[in-house]
Amino acid sequence: MRFALGFAVMVGAVAVVAVLTPSVGSSETAAKQPKQDCGRVEYTSGLELVFKRFSTHAPAVAYRNRIAINGFLNGNIIQGCDSFRVVIRGMESFDVAVELQSEAKTAKYATTIECIKGKDDVSELEVVFGHRRNRVEAEQLVLRAADSGFTGLKLEPDPCGGFEIMIKGFKDRPQAQDFVAEAKQHGFDVVIENS
């Protein structure tokens, strides 16, 4: 009888714990699930200098106005999934971002440099001629390719600064592969990517 009573008490205690802590055992499952997309889509890759994050819009506006008074006139407020970031965008190279970060530091702003990956059109093939640290180096590669007969190359911003030099417009993979073979014969280290 004592054993049955003790067993019943133990089963009752387990049931109470199970009811009071329903998330036990489900946290591992929740951790494996991917995060939900909050709907924000970036269309251009590049760099941003993040001055500060806020949970609401009003203090972000006040802070943006404060950094403008201190000479950082191109501040923007970007709404993310869980915060409003006060940022400056538009730096083409990581070197320029570091210079701006140093300038912000002299004004007593602790900033971070962050990379933004823009949305790609995954349906289109492109042949990539390379990546360069800044616009001057990228344009030199474009000119070198043009001298070899490869015209129509475009520059796209890389997420962490610099540029990708590429060409699109191939009807299928075999056409892109023929283009790659010809470019390699001219000494270019090119690859095919889905953009």
Give me some keywords for this one.
elongated, disordered N terminus, four-stranded antiparallel sheet, alpha+beta, 195 residues, 2 domains, Alpha-Beta Plaits
Structure write-up:
This protein has 195 residues and is α+β, with helices and mostly antiparallel strands. It folds into 2 domains: 71 residues, Sporulation related repeat (Alpha-Beta Plaits, 2-Layer Sandwich); 70 residues, Sporulation related repeat (Alpha-Beta Plaits), CATH 3.30.70.1070. It has 6 helices and 8 strands; from the N terminus they run ααβαββαββαββαβ. The strands form 2 sheets. The protein has a 4-stranded antiparallel beta sheet. It has a 4-stranded antiparallel beta sheet with strand order 6-7-5-8. A hairpin with a 5-residue loop joins strand 6 and strand 7. The N terminus is likely disordered.
Please outline what is shown here.
Helices cover 39% and strands 24% of the residues. With 195 residues, the chain is α+β, with helices and mostly antiparallel strands.
